[in-house]
Write a structure and sequence with these properties.
The protein is mainly alpha-helical. The chain folds into two domains: about 250 residues, no CATH class; about 60 residues, 2-Layer Sandwich (Zincin-like). It contains 16 helices and four strands. A hairpin with a 6-residue loop joins strand 3 and strand 4. Helix 5 packs antiparallel against helix 6 and helix 6 packs across helix 10.
Length: about 425
């Protein structure tokens, strides 16, 4: 049986640990980047100029400063929402609006989302129109930014409110094993969104045009045939509408998978380099990384919901985190609000597995295209996206889902030999 004292104590210990670790890692990363700002790493000395390297360093330093300011505000508001009584205050408001428990729960979650959006808006504006603008990456206009916010809000209402309503109903009506029913709903919703998103939701924010470059299309078709990959089509997205960063990704499920290139990427890379980048992405599918990530995500979700099922009946869980009212909605909010504090200790393991997947995907690309083409593509992407070529060791252990630039290039050159 939990006590209020232990709930408060464990929360504060993990809060202090999480904040300290994230702050120290950010400071170490900034120190490492600043220390190597005046010299291009040897593996890129002939392909990236000192000016480009210094731009990437300055961009990384600016992002890390911004992240530390954000960290302070996020920590302050987490304390206010919990021990400071912020959630209790929002719950009081919902009690004054409705007497129906389910409606109060829905209102509480919606109200919290609105408050978090309002708090986060200045940070989103600064990041888009100051930080990204300063380094020449922002393409978003105020009109596009406002339209995105409105569209996101409407989608949240249309898709989120029915889902939240069903989850809260199941938490109340299905007894002590409610977590299993909620998990099944979440899995079904996630799989459905993987089909729905590329066809109906993504086009609300961006335009997707079939790839018109016949030479590149032929190269892609040959690569798909060679690797046995089925695709619903190859599309070009107007990523330049919002940002100067380039990217490529797969979306969809089963035979509905689509290949999407940012228009900014195609302007940067030649045909061979684009083919190599695509081969890397195909490597993730061939090694079943996507499937493994889905299985891991669904398994972790089941475990977390089981834990929440154990916590929900215990009043100390609510009182220890500053909530005066016990309800399914309050349990859901408190649990997922403090969860990141406890998951940070698993970040190095998650990042290590992700980096291993990236090495495997690179090796697959090297087997099916020329490794030098992928090296050239990565170099251009690091340069044009102002990606740092220097990473602190401990920062990388915790956060880097991809190997650092130097290690990645060296691994590809080993494939060449």
């Amino acid at each position: 049986m939990l006590t209020v004292f232990w709930v408060e104590t464990i929360f504060l210990i993990f809060f202090a640990f999480s904040f300290t670790v994230q702050w120290v890692l950010s400071w170490r990363q900034s120190s490492a980047v600043a220390a190597h700002r005046h010299q291009v790493p040897q593996d890129f000395a002939t392909t990236i100029s000192l000016e480009e390297h210094q731009k990437a360093a300055d961009y990384t330093l600016a992002k890390e400063r911004f992240s530390r300011y954000s960290m302070i505000f996020q920590a302050a508001f987490l304390l206010w929402f919990t021990l400071g009584g912020g959630l209790a205050f929002l719950a009081e408001i919902t009690h004054g609006i409705s007497g129906h428990p389910l409606m109060r729960g829905i209102l509480l979650i919606v109200l919290l989302i609105l408050v978090q959006w309002f708090i986060g808006l200045p940070f989103a504006l600064y990041k888009t129109f100051r930080l990204e603008e300063r380094f020449g990456f922002n393409r978003t206009t105020i009109k596009t930014f406002i339209a995105d916010q409105i569209k996101s809000g409407v989608l949240m209402a249309v898709l989120g409110i029915p889902l939240i309503s069903l989850v809260l109903y199941l938490m109340e009506a299905m007894g002590k094993n409610w977590w299993l029913y909620v998990w099944l709903v979440w899995v079904a919703f996630s799989l459905t969104m993987m089909v729905v998103f590329p066809r109906w939701i993504a086009p609300l924010f961006n335009q997707f045009q079939p790839l018109e470059d016949e030479v590149l299309q032929n190269k892609i078709n040959n690569l798909l045939q060679k690797t046995g990959f089925e695709s619903k089509g190859v599309f070009v997205m107007d990523g330049s509408k919002r940002s100067g960063h380039g990217n490529a990704y797969f979306t969809g499920l089963g035979k509905q998978k689509r290949i999407v290139f940012f228009d900014t990427l195609l302007k940067t890379l030649n045909h061979e380099e684009t083919e190599a980048v695509l081969a890397h992405e195909l490597g993730h599918f061939k090694h079943k990384h996507i499937l493994r990530q889905m299985i891991f995500s669904f398994s972790l979700g089941l475990i977390l919901l089981m834990i929440l099922g154990w916590l929900m009946p215990q009043r100390a869980f609510y009182v220890g985190l500053g909530a005066l009212y016990a309800s399914p909605a309050m349990a859901l909010i408190l649990f997922f609000m403090v969860l990141p504090l406890f998951l940070l200790v698993f970040a190095p393991l998650s990042s290590m597995l992700s980096r291993r997947h990236e090495y495997q995907a690179d090796a697959f690309a090297a087997q099916n295209t020329h490794p030098e083409h992928l090296i050239s593509a990565l170099t251009k992407l690091y340069r044009d996206n102002a990606g740092t070529l220097v990473t602190d060791k401990w920062y990388s252990y915790f956060y880097d889902s991809h190997p650092d630039a130097n290690a990645r290039v060296r691994a590809l050159r080993k494939n060449m030999s």
